[in-house]
Structures
1.
Amino acid sequence: MNSDQSKIDPTLTPVIQNEYFDNNTLDAFHVINQSEIGKYEALRYRYLKEHKQHLFLELFFQDKLGEHLRTVEQSARNRLDQIMGCLLARHPAPDPKTSPLTWVWHMNQLKEQAHAIVVSELIYN
C-alpha cells in the first residue's frame, strides 16, 4: 500500500453524515405545522425520516416535503373511505339500534383492517 493513499484528507471526501443535519433542522416542518399535520402525514414523515433518509432530505431541501405529506394524507383518506365501503359491502354491519356495542365493535374492526391496508400501501412503500 502506498503511503500517499493512507494519508487521505477526510475533508476532501464528500460524505453526508447524519451529524451534519441535527434533529432541530429536520424537525422544523413538524414543529411549525404540528397543529395542522394529519395522522397519515405524521406516519409518512416519521417513516421517511427514519427509513428513507435520502428521499426525506431531497424533499426537505427542495421544499417539497409539505406538499408530499399533504398528498399522502389526502390519498390515504380517500383510500380509507374506498376500502371501508368495500369492507362494509362484503361484511355488513349489524343494526346499531338493536345492538350498538356489536355495531361499534364491527365498525372498529373494519376500520382497523382498512387502516392496515392504507398504511402498507401508501405510508410504508
2.
Amino acid sequence: MSQEKKKTLSRKGWVLVGILAAALVMTAVWRWTPVQEHVTPDALADWAETIRGSSYTPLILMAIGKTIEEEREDEKEE
C-alpha cells in the first residue's frame, strides 16, 4: 500500500473517530444537562426561520457546499 493511501486511510479514520466522539458528547450533553428543555422542535423551527432571513445564509451554504465538494474530490483521487 502506498504511503499516500495510508495517509488518506489514517485521516478518514481520525475523521470517523472525531464524528463518533462529537456524537457521544452531544448525547451526554442532551442527557445530563438542561439542553433538552431548550432545544425543542419549535425552537429549531424558529432558528431555521432566523437563518432563512439572515444575510449570511448564502455564505453559510457556499461554505457547506465547498466542504462537500472538497470531500468528493478527495474520494475521487483515491
3.
Amino acid sequence: MECVGSAAVLDLAEGAARLPGGFWAAVGVWLEKPQVANKRLSGAHLEESRAMPRPRSSPAGAGPGGGGPRAASSELDVAWQALRCSSLGPLLLGPGPAHVDALLRTLLPKGRPAPARELVVRDVFNGTVTFLPLEQNHEGKFKIKECNIYQIKLLHRKVNEWSLSVLSPSPENYVSDGIVYPKTTWLGNELLAKLAKWSLETKKCEFKNTLSLISLARYNNSYQNLKEKYKEIVKVWPEVTDPQKFVYEDVAIAAYLLILWEDERAAKGMSSKQSFVDLGCGNGLLVHILSSEGHPGKGVDVRRRKIWDMYGPQTHLESVDPDRRNWVHSTGTYPRTVESRVEWHQSHVWSAPPVSGVVEEGTASDTSGEADPWTQERREYKARFREMQQEMEWLQTWAQNAEVQLTALTNAPARNAPEGGGAAILAFIQGLIGGPLSEVPNPMMEQRLSMLLTVEKEEAWNTFCSSFGRADSTTP
C-alpha cells in the first residue's frame, strides 16, 4: 500500500480524549453524507451493514481468502465473496479479530452519471476503513475494481499525537472520473484535511436530517427529472435575482415535497393529490412546479412579480396588500392588552378564501374606505417611534451642552463642590456614566442619566446645578 497523503493530528482536548472515537465519527460522516466533502455528489445510500469473517491467507488446498466458497444470500454476501476470491483481502486488512464490519453503499452523483456501488470495510482493530469500488455483470455478480481501491488509516504515534493517511495499492493505475472517483490528490489533501478537522470537532446532532424522511435515491432521481423539465426557465428569467440559485433551489424543494406527499398518500391510502397554500411565495416558481405536477394550490405574496405572467392560468398566484385587507371582525375593535388579544383571536378567526379566489360571504369585508385597527395601531407605533427619536436627539444635544457647561467650571470651582472644583465634578459625572457625555450610546442614555432626568428638562438642569451651589446657571 502506497501513501498518497498524510496529516498529523494533535488531540489536546481536556478531559476525555477525542481520538480514536472522533475518527470513526468523521468516517461515519464520509460514509453517510459524502456530499459535504465532495460537492459533485447528492449523497449516499447505505444498503446493508453486517459483521463479516475477516479474510485470511489461503491454507493449502483452499480457494482465495480461505474457508472455501459459501452460498451468497444477499448483495452484501455477493460483494464479500468477490473480496474473498481475490488476493487483496489479507493485504488490505491484515491480522486481527475474527470479524470486521462490512457495508454496501451506493454513491449518488449529481447530474446524469450512473450511481456507483462500493464495499466498505471497517477494521477497528487496525484503525482502517477500506473502500472497494464494485462492478456488477449481467449475472448479478460483483467484481472489485482494484485500480480504484483506497484506504483511510488512523495511527497512534505517542501520547496525544496521531496521524491520518490515505493509502492506495496502485496510485499510478487509479482512474478518476472527477465525480464518484475523485483524484488521489483530492483524497490525500482535501478529504484528509476535512477528516482531520471532523475527528476533533464532530459532535452528535440531536436533530433528524429531513432527507432521512425520504429515499435519497428517489429524491436524486426526481430532482434530476424536474431540473431537466424546468431548465428553460433559467434562460427566460425576467427578475433581477440569480436564476441559477432560485430556479434550482425551488426545483429541489419541489422534488422533496413530491416524494414526501407520495409516501403520505401511500401510507394513508389516499387517491387524490394534496393541496397547498404558499404564503410569501415570492417569484411563485415553487407554486408553478407543484401545480404543474398535479397538486392544486395557490401562492400569496404582498406584491406581484413580473414572472407571474409567464406561468399561465393553471398557476394560481395572488398579491395581497395587508394594509387594505380587513382582518378584524366588522363589529369589533382591536384589543390593546395581550390577554384580551388572545381572547379576541380565539373568537374572531379569519377564514382564508378558497383557491379559486372567490370570497365566501361573511369571511372578509371590504374596508378600503377606512383603516382597520391593526393598521391604525401600526401608525400609532410609527408616530410614537418618531417622538422617541426626537426625544433621543434632544437628549444627545442636552448631554453635549451639559459637558460644555461642566467643562467651563474647571476654572471656577462652585460653592460646596467637591475638592478640585469643576474638574472633579466633570470627572465624577464621567465616571458615573462610563465616559464623556457625548459618547454615551443612545439606548443607554436614559438609564445612565436617570439622576438628571427625575423632573422636567429645565428643572433637571437647575436641580443638578443647585446641588453644587450654581442655581444661577442657564439651562442647555
4.
Amino acid sequence: MVLLKSAFFTTALAATGGLPKNLKVDDRSSVQAVAATIAAETMAYYPGTATAFGDLPAPYYWWETGALFGAMLDYSHYTKDKTYTDMVTTALLANVGPTFDYMVPAHFGDEGNDDLAFWGFAVLAAAERNYVQPSTKIPSWLQLGENIFNTLINRWNTTACGGGVAWQIFATNPNGMDYKNSVSNGGLFQIAARLARATNNQTYADWANKVWDWSVAVNFVDKDLNVYDGASSADNCTKTNYLAFSYTQGIYLYGAAVLANYTEDKVWADRAAGLLAAAQHGYFSPFSNATDVMWEHACEGVNTCTTDMKSFKGYLSRFMYASAQMQPALKDKVVTLLHASAAAAANACTGGTKGTTCGQKWYVGGFDGSVGLGQQMCALETIQGLLFESAAPPLRAGQIKDLKVPEPEPTPTPSETHAPSPTASKKNAAVSTPAADLRWLGLSALVGVLMMGGFLVGL
C-alpha cells in the first residue's frame, strides 16, 4: 500500500504540479491536479485492490467505506480520471449482501440504517451516471438502490413518534434502538427523492413527502430549516437533541433540491434554498478572518470531533455541489461558499513530508496536525466538486441504463454543439448540462499514463 501511494501521487505531482498549496480554484487543470494528489492520499487508507474488496481498518466503520466510494465516484465523474474505477466497482459489488440490499452479515454487529443510507447514496450515484455494472448475477445499480429503499421503509415504525426509522437495526446492537435520528431518516428522504426522479414512480415521491412531513413534525427540521440530530422514542420524540452536524443538513438539502427539479414545485425550491441558507448560517464563517470557510461547529471549536465527525464536512460539500446542479438558482451561493472553503482546505493539506497531507480545521490558515481518512475525504470532496459546472448532471428516468460494458465515447465534429440530451420530460430543463471539454479528457489520459508509468518504475 505504501508503494502504491508513493507511485501514484509522486508521479502525479511531477506531471501536474498538484501540490494542494498551489490550488487555483478557477483553473480546471489546477483543480484536477490537486484532486488527484488528495485522492491518492485518500485511497492510501483503503486496503483493497481493483479485484479484491477490503474493509477499512479500525477506527473506521463499514459505513465510511460506503461514504469513501461515494466520494470516489464523484472524483471519477468530476475529473474524468478513471484510475480508481475498478476499485470502486469491486467494492460496491462486494457488499451487496445475499439479498442484494446491502445487508451484509459480516457487518450485522455494526450496521445501522444510516450506514445503509450511505451505501445507497453511492449506489444511486452509480445508477445516475450509467456507471458500468459488469456482473450478470447482480441486479442493476438502480435496482440495488430500490432494494435499499424497500429495506428502509420496512423499518418505518409508528409505535412511537408517529413514524420514522430507528438509528440501529439489530437488538444485539442496543445503542440507538430507541433513538430516531435525522441521518437515517434524511437518508431515506434523499433516496426516495432520487428514486422518484430516476424512475418517475410516484410511490417514491409520496415517501419523500411523508418523511419530510414527519421530520418537520418531530422537529428534526425546524421552522428555519436547521436540521437537528434526533430524539428518543422513549419520550415519543418530544425532547429534541439539538446537536447539529453538517452532513445531515446536506442530506436533506440535496433531497429537497432533487424534488424541486423533479416536481418543478416552488415549495421544494424554497425549501432547498432555505436549507442552504441554514447551512451557510450554521457551518461557515466561524471567525471574522475565516469568511465562508466551512467548519463542523458542534465539535471543532472544542476539540471533541470523533473519527466519524471528521468526515462530515465532505458530505455537505458533496450535496451542496449536487444541489446546485439540480437547482441552478443555488449556484451562486454554493460557489461563493465552496470556493472559499476549497481554498482553505487546500491550505490545510500541507502536512507530511511531501506537503500533501490534509488537516481538520480549515479556518486556522494551514495544517493543524490532525490527520486521518475523514480529513482527506473532506478536502477531496470540497476541491473536486469545484468542477461541478463542467460535469453532466445526474441522469433521470428514461436515461438510466444497466450497462455491462462502457458505451463508446461519441466522436465530436467541428460543428457539434454538445447540446443537452433530449428527454421526454420538461423537468430536465432546470438542470444545466455543460459542454464536454475534450482537452480535459486528454489531460486525464496523460496523467493516467504517467501514473502507471511511475507505478511500474516503483516496482
